[in-house]
């Protein structure tokens, strides 16, 4: 996050604001139920909201979808929409001022300014109250709740849910697999056998490469899924015997490097993979010049038309997601930011705001922004709602997803415009993946030492990996680096801090 003010300044301002708000609350007490401050269920809940705007024009106060949501939730929503281009700057200024809307979108729950705000007591710990709101606990995954806990193991906001399963993983050309007479791989050895067969038997008929891949400046890109399949973890940290271990130190990482170097030497990945961008890598697959890619199953529509034009026999079910490799596949964090309630809001009203979100997540209420207004944004044909997506977008329906959202657990895998057989296949594979998918357990964990050394350390590790994969350095160079890292006091301190943070968060203390 691009912080315009220092954490120290923000913390000081927030502490003052907290003290002031506590004083005002004590003096003024609760106002009537007409303003939503009372404990009764009657009366309209007036609530100020700040959230992100990703469309060109914000919904106006008389927006029909907004008014329909307000009627269904017995509320009056005073929404401040802030462009995504400068949301983080606006949020930082707002947090530092202490004048925080009663429901505020926090894009990065672990940015220093929000961490400081929580530490200063500026936001409600909603953990004890969640049991009273069934939609919050049933329609937001446990993964999302776990990974948005702060360092004290408590939740200071409602996660905006996203599907946690079916994160980007290996996608195979099933038609090529059938041509070489092999089954969908389940181990790294079988994965190599498939790639080698794609190279030797040329099922694409055009000398295509087996696996198109790329790297990012800050990580290993799609090659990271090869590494993760060896280490069995999603991310840079593995929980091992109760401790978090930096994955570069694992012996499995060495094995993955040998595997990747072999892939490069045998031309199973692009010769220029280290300089390829994501879009260029995807274009190789889209152009029928690769047999495997890393992506979500639901992106099939991005590739299908081009592949069908090249090969008329290509079927949608030939875009085939691999279930798992070595018992591993990645699980997403299950959230995209969170909605937080400042402590300046009295407890009674805080509970009503949680009730507002919970009610908003009811199927019939959430459907208002999903489909819009009947006769304007959708029509009903044979009992099915047919959406005019252009009109719904014009009427700002999707914008309200930035406040409250209900995630379809299969949204990443299935689409309404996919044929039934395709959706059935992707759904079946996603259900299988869910049995052993792994989330990044380090999300949200705070280590002062990691903040200081990790960016440069990751760069050093990535540079070493690239040189070994390209054959410029021998594998022994990796052994030398790992030995240095194991003897590095900062690395040891970082690992201990990450472990302490994980255990504290897990214990909820």
Describe the structure in your own words.
With 509 residues, the protein is an alpha/beta fold. It folds into three domains: 7-164 and 334-402, D-Maltodextrin-Binding Protein, domain 2; 169-330 and 427-438, Periplasmic binding protein-like II (D-Maltodextrin-Binding Protein, domain 2); 448-507, no CATH class. Helix content is 44%, strand content 14%. The protein contains 19 helices and 15 strands. It has helices spanning 7-28, 64-73, 87-97, 112-119, 134-138, 142-147, 174-179, 188-201, 224-231, 251-265, 278-286, 300-310, 347-360, 363-371, 389-394, 420-433, 448-469, 475-487, 489-507; strands spanning 45-53, 75-83, 103-106, 158-161, 169-173, 209-211, 237-240, 243-246, 290-295, 319-321, 329-330, 335-340, 378-381, 384-387, 437-438. It has a five-stranded mixed β-sheet with strand order 2-1-3-12-4. It has a four-stranded mixed β-sheet with strand order 6-9-5-10. α2 (64-73) runs antiparallel to α14, α9 (224-231) packs across α10 (251-265) and α17 crosses α19 (489-507). Residues 1-40 have low confidence and may be disordered.
């Amino acid at each position: 996050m691009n912080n315009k003010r220092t954490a120290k300044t923000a913390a000081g301002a927030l502490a003052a604001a907290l003290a002031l708000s506590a004083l005002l609350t004590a003096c003024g007490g609760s106002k009537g139920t007409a303003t939503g401050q009372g404990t009764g269920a009657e009366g309209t809940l007036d609530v100020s909201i700040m959230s992100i705007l990703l469309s060109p024009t914000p919904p106006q106060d008389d927006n029909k979808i907004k008014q329909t949501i307000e009627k269904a939730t017995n509320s009056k929503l005073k929404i401040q929409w802030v462009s995504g281009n400068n949301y983080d700057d606006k949020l930082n200024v707002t947090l530092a001022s202490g004048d925080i809307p009663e429901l505020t979108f926090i894009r990065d729950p672990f940015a220093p300014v929000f961490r400081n705000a929580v530490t200063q007591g500026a936001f409600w710990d909603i953990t004890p109250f969640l049991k009273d709101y069934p939609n919050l606990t049933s329609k937001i995954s446990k993964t999302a709740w776990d990974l948005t806990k702060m360092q004290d193991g408590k939740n200071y906001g409602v996660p905006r849910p996203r599907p946690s399963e079916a994160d980007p993983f290996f996608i195979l050309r099933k038609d090529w697999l059938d041509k070489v007479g092999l089954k969908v791989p389940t181990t790294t050895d079988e994965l190599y056998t498939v790639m080698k067969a794609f190279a030797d038997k040329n099922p694409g008929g055009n000398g295509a490469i087996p696996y198109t891949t790329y790297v990012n400046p800050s990580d290993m890109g799609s090659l990271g899924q090869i590494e993760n399949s060896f280490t069995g973890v999603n991310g840079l940290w593995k929980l091992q015997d109760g401790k978090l271990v930096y994955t570069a130190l694992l012996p499995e990482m060495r094995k993955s490097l040998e595997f990747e170097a072999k892939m490069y030497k045998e031309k199973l990945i692009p010769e220029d993979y280290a300089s390829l961008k994501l879009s260029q890598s995807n274009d190789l697959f889209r152009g029928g010049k690769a047999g495997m890619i890393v992506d979500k199953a639901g992106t099939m529509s991005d590739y299908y038309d081009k592949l069908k034009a090249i090969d008329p026999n290509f079927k949608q079910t030939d875009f085939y997601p691999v279930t798992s490799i070595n018992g591993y596949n990645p699980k997403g964090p299950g959230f995209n930011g969170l909605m937080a309630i400042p402590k300046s809001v009295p407890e009674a009203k805080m509970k009503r705001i949680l009730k507002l979100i919970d009610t908003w997540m009811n199927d019939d209420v959430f459907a208002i922004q999903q489909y819009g207004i009947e006769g304007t944004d959708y029509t009903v044909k044979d009992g099915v709602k047919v959406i005019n997506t252009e009109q719904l977008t014009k009427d700002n329906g999707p914008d309200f997803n930035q406040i409250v959202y209900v995630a379809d657990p299969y949204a990443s895998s299935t689409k309404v415009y996919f044929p039934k057989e395709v959706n059935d296949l992707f759904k079946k594979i996603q259900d299988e993946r869910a049995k052993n998918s792994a989330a990044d357990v380090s999300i949200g964990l705070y280590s002062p030492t990691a903040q200081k050394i990790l960016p440069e350390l990751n760069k050093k590790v990535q540079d070493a990996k690239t040189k070994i994969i390209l054959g410029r350095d021998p594998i022994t160079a990796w052994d030398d680096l790992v030995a240095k890292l194991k003897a590095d006091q900062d690395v040891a301190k970082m690992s201990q801090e990450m472990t302490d943070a994980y255990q504290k968060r897990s214990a909820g203390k």
